[in-house]
DNA sequence: TTGACATATTCCCACATGGGAATATGATCA
DNA sequence: TGATCATATTCCCATGTGGGAATATGTCAA
């Protein structure tokens, strides 16, 4: 059995670094294919193929407008990946909690990017 | 250029479902190879090969003891993956933040034990 | 030492891959 | 209509792949 197809699931789709780059670039703001190619230094067919894979697992959404095709990251599709990582988060979340608590005690300081998760407290 | 090697980085290593299964199984508690094979229904050479990949990217740690080799997940190696997902988390974290804030406002209540599996319900 | 056990490695192979290049499809404009 | 722009698809190919089977390495027990 060879390696699973890139369109099998989100895990396989994001294994490719260029596709991760595309997802970050398309984060929140939709862009036409040409812009992606320019911004990431790829040629157009490569971008189209990568987008095809990402679309296959729901990681991007498409909007057609005339001869342009706008793509945009669908962050919802990344949730399973995020939640899978949370399985292990408790091992390192203690630090984050500490950082967060310090930041909250001193508002005005640079806050952490975000902190939505309470940690589980460990079974060592 | 073919697909990047599985040992290129954590993203490629965890693309394989069996390897994710192994990481979950080895979470926190070390196990010999035979136990992994039994638990996941794989044959021993397959497990050894998967472990070799995981070791190649630092996702498991090894301890030898006689003829046994104990493996254990190294969750620290998953942090880059976790943090990459955080890039997009803001789109779905609003729910979690709201839950957390409510819990913090009522400290006598039972705090949420853990927030790893928020409900799946629709995005508004 | 020999034999049993635990793990790692090697060999084989069908197969999906990503890049390059060329081409096809589709939409707009003159 | 034809020409041009934007994107998608096809063809080719070197390469890493995961599984199975067989074998090698290493360790303990008698």
Q: Could you state the oligomeric state of the chains shown?
A: homodimer
Q: Which range does the strand content of chain A fall in?
A: 5-15%
Output the strand order for the largest sheet of chain A. 1-3-2
How many helices of chain A does DSSP assign?
6
Determine Rg of chain A (CA atoms, Å).
18 Å
The pair of chains with the biggest contact is: A-B, 38 and 45 residues
Q: Largest sheet of chain A at a glance?
A: 3 strands, antiparallel
* N-C termini distance of chain A: 37 Å
- Beta strand count of chain A: 3
Average residue pLDDT of chain A = 82
Structural class of the helix and strand makeup of chain A? mainly alpha
Give a description of the structure.
The structure is a homodimer of 124-residue chains. The radius of gyration of chain A is 18 Å and the shape is globular. The relative contact order of chain A is 0.13. The model of chain A is unreliable at 107-124 (pLDDT under 50). Chain A has helices at residues 10-13, 17-25, 33-40, 44-56, 79-89, 93-105, and strands at residues 31-32, 60-65, 68-73. The longest helix of chain A has 13 residues, at 44-56. The first copy, chain A, is mainly α. In chain A, helix 3 (33-40) packs across helix 4 (44-56). Chain A has a 3-stranded antiparallel β-sheet with strand order 1-3-2. Chain A starts with 9 loop residues before the first helix and ends in a 19-residue tail after the last helix. Chains A and B meet through helix 2 and helix 5 of A and helix 2, helix 5 and helix 6 of B. Chain A binds a DNA duplex (30 and 30 nucleotides) through helix 4.
């Amino acid at each position: 059995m060879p390696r699973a197809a890139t369109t099998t699931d989100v895990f396989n789709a994001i294994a490719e670094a260029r596709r991760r780059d595309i997802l970050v670039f398309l984060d929140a703001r939709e862009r036409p294919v040409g812009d992606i190619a320019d911004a990431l230094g790829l040629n157009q067919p490569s971008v189209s193929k990568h987008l095809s894979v990402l679309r296959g697992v729901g990681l991007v959404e498409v909007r057609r407008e005339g001869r342009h095709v706008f793509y945009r990251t669908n962050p919802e599709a990344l949730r399973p990946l995020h939640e899978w990582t949370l399985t292990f988060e408790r091992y390192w979340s203690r630090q984050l909690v500490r950082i967060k608590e310090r930041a909250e005690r001193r508002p005005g300081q640079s806050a952490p990017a975000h902190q939505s998760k309470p940690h589980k407290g460990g079974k060592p």
